[in-house]
Fold Tripartite-type tricarboxylate transporter receptor subunit TctC.
Amino acid sequence: MQKAVRMMKRMTVGATAVLALVAGQAFAQGFPVKPVRIVAPYVPGGTVDALSRALAAQLSEEFGQQVVVENRAGASGNIGAEYVAGAEPDGHVLLLTASTVIVNPLVMKEKQRFDLHKNFTPIGMVASTPLVFVVSPQSGIDNVGDFIKQAKAHPDKINFGVGGFGSGGHLAMETFNVRAGTSIPMVIYKGSAPALTDIVGGQLSAIMDPVLTTLPFVSTGRLKAIAVTGERRSALLPSVPTLGEAGVPNMDFVSWYGMWGPAGIPEAVSRRIQAGLTKVLGSPQFKSWLDKQGMVAGTVTGKQFGDYVLQESKKYAQAVADAKIEPK
């Protein structure tokens, strides 16, 4: 009798699991059942906003349902991220944000009210772009070696511009100081635009910023690119060496952009969104758009993306510790 009861219990558990799986698959096949919102946690007009809108247009065709962008700016992207963390986990509200989301808790005194690794479902990396190390053509600096030599010989005449405290460019610059053995002071700005204006005007010596923002200045000769971060050269700047090639190792900082949903999205739905994202990122049309922005399409989704973000978090934490950056 007891054996029969145990067998019935196992059959019931198995049947329940099968029904749950079938229900999840059926829901995924019907997904989306209403418009999907991509929350961009920054103001309109920036890189995250532009990327979100380009992706939304393509995903609308892929899903057969309207995908719209909703800007929820504030607190360096934390307001929008917090909103998505508390949304219904059915896949209809997603977050698209920049890699600063993993830097914020390291450099901000105000604590985040969410944990990126616990309160979200990783969907996939959307794109990445290296940072470009640029100097003024009037500086007489031709390469990274020249820059380091001048920084050590005339420390009072060299400075770095930073387009935001805790930004990728900020941590890259601080790490450059550590790797190159320099102590170049930082000038912190509230955005890249004023920093780029000042370097063109001669008030700054150098800045590291994404290809998208620096390329217009480099292509017109107003700034000189002497290196790029990351493991490989930029396709838009093929003659510019990586910092590793220039003699400063372990400078694989890149700006990347990823997509998440709230924690608890059914696995079948998450896979459906991942599949749609992968198809769009692999399309010639979207790749062409990314090329013009100096970006490379992402290739990791789901758990692989989650693992990548975790490793990036550890890398940035080490960079903050090495540079002794105090939270503000």
Q: What stands out?
A: The domain at 34-128+255-320 is CATH 3.40.190.150 (D-Maltodextrin-Binding Protein; domain 2). The first strand starts at residue 36 and ends at 40.
